[in-house]
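Case study 2.
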Amino acid sequence: MKNILKLFYSIMLIVALVFSQAAMAVQPDEVLADPVLEKRARAISVNLRCLVCQNQNIDDSDAPLAKDLRILVRERLIVGDSDGEVLDYVVDRYGEYVLLKPVWGLHTFLLWVAGPAILLFGFIAIFFVAKKQPKAKPTKELSKAEKAALKKLEDG
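Prediction:
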């Protein structure tokens, strides 16, 4: 019974630690009074990368720069910018790297095509290398002399 309780407490601690991280990011003083604007701010900020954490959105990050970006998004919404205008403003200020999902364009063509192209090239190379490999020849039976020599080697 004690082991089960220890296991239960351990699982509860792990769950609390995992789910508490996201709750720490947006501070109460950042939340807008208007629930509609706050919902829009949250929708925008999950698409923006924390430039300190790099693979975390600004809504989940505790970094000071992420807080500044969350405040900037909310300020732009209060001014009356649309969601697209807010994203354009942030991208103009910090570059496209701030977007968690890169845009499709000529300047990002290599980013989108390189991975699948390398994978396809690898499959084609494996196919041709495997095709050129000589097929295994069937082995022939050992002669009596070879069997005797082998037995002599095995016996030492």
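The mean pLDDT is 82.
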